[in-house]
Write a structure and sequence with these properties.
Blueprint: H1 4-34, E1 45-57, E2 60-73, E3 77-81, E4 84-89, E5 94-99, E6 102-106, E7 111-121, E8 125-135, E9 140-152, E10 159-170, E11 175-187, E12 195-206, E13 211-222, E14 225-235, E15 246-260, E16 263-277, E17 282-286, E18 290-293, E19 296-299, E20 302-306, E21 311-315, E22 320-324, H2 326-329
Antiparallel strand pairs: 1-2, 2-3, 2-4, 3-6, 4-5, 5-7, 6-7, 7-8, 8-9, 9-10, 10-11, 11-12, 12-13, 13-14, 14-15, 15-16, 16-17, 16-18, 17-20, 18-19, 20-21, 21-22
Length: 331
């Protein structure tokens, strides 16, 4: 047998080296566990109350607002509570005013998101919604939740108010597109020229052309007339000109409410196309038009309804026919 003392020394040497190896592995595991991936580092947040916020672009103020509280996420995202502010278009010397319950601004995308009782006012119009996104670079507003648009036509100064479920608008281009349960009112600048109400599934406003497009289940109420059709256009600038003021197509139906000594009656007209002339106060129906009043039915190639008058004109290949109300014939 070997010397017991030698055996003890050998075993002690082996144990010492084993301890060193185990300690080295434990140290490596601790270092690895203490290190976190770069992407998992939490962003730095800054919270400020009762502040005035300014964002400069190329040394010029682009956006300014005040808010009850702001939480900024790094240098890219700022979140606001009860913001009220102004966005400046430097090139066109225009500005945009806004307020909401809550807002978030992403500097890189130049995207302002507003939530809760949103009010946004441009030089041409006022927008109201529960949620609204404004992409400044794209000149694009997207609104949803009880959208309301209020604005005056730049040429005629007619006041237009529109309600819908959602909206896409380009303020600088004076173009707006409304969808979902669209309804509204058009009031002429001169009050005596009257107003009209309308509804549709889809509506577009081209401000530069003073033109309104209606699409899908179109209804228009004007004085004692109700017009329904598949689609229609309203030319705001043509009201006092000898030009078409509105045009409707696809299954056009005109219902006129007539008050007589005997009570209320209804005169109905049907056609594929209707053209309305504001100054002349007349509507021209074409495309297999016909008029029904009680048991009387008249057909022709073209039928003209004279508003505020007790007659219609029917044109065909042979003659012109004048129809008067029964109570007028007895006078």
């Amino acid at each position: 047998m070997r010397n017991p003392r030698s055996i003890i020394i050998i075993l002690a040497y082996i144990a010492f080296n084993a301890f060193i190896v185990v300690a080295a592995f434990n140290q490596r595991d601790e270092e690895a566990s203490s290190k976190k991936p770069v992407g998992s580092l939490a962003p730095e947040y800054t919270q400020v109350e009762d502040l005035n916020y300014f964002h400069l672009k190329e040394g010029k103020p682009q956006m300014s607002l005040n808010a009850v509280k702001m939480i900024s996420e790094g240098e890219e995202v700022a979140e606001f509570f009860q913001p009220k502010g102004i966005y400046n278009y430097q090139a066109k010397k225009m500005n945009l005013k806004y307020q909401a319950d809550h807002g978030k601004y992403r500097k890189q995308k130049e995207l302002l998101t507003l939530d809760g009782d949103v009010i946004l006012i441009s030089d041409e119009a006022e927008y109201l919604a529960q949620k609204l996104k404004y992409f400044f670079k794209k000149d694009l507003i997207m609104g949803s939740g009880g959208v309301t648009f209020k604005g005056d036509d730049l040429k005629t100064k007619d006041h237009l108010e529109i309600h819908s479920e959602s909206m896409r608008a380009h303020p600088e281009q004076q173009f707006s597109h409304f969808t979902g349960s669209v309804n509204g009112r058009l009031q002429r600048k001169k009050k005596y020229e009257g107003a009209m109400t309308f509804s549709a599934q889809d509506l577009e406003v081209e401000g530069q052309k003073s033109l309104v497009h209606l699409q899908g289940d179109v209804k228009l109420n004007r004085q004692s007339y109700l017009i329904t059709a598949g689609k229609g256009d309203i030319y705001l600038e043509n009201f006092n000109k000898s030009l078409k003021y509105f045009v409707f197509n696809d299954d056009v139906k005109v219902t006129e409410t007539i008050q007589t000594p005997k009570g209320t009656s209804y005169r109905k007209a049907f056609s594929e196309r209707l053209e309305g002339f504001g100054r002349e106060e007349k509507m021209v129906l074409s495309g297999a038009p016909r008029v029904e009043h009680g048991e009387d039915v008249v057909k022709g190639y073209r039928i003209t309804i004279r508003e505020k008058m007790d007659l219609i004109e029917v044109d065909d290949a042979l003659s012109d026919v004048l129809m008067k109300r029964e109570d007028e014939k007895k006078k």
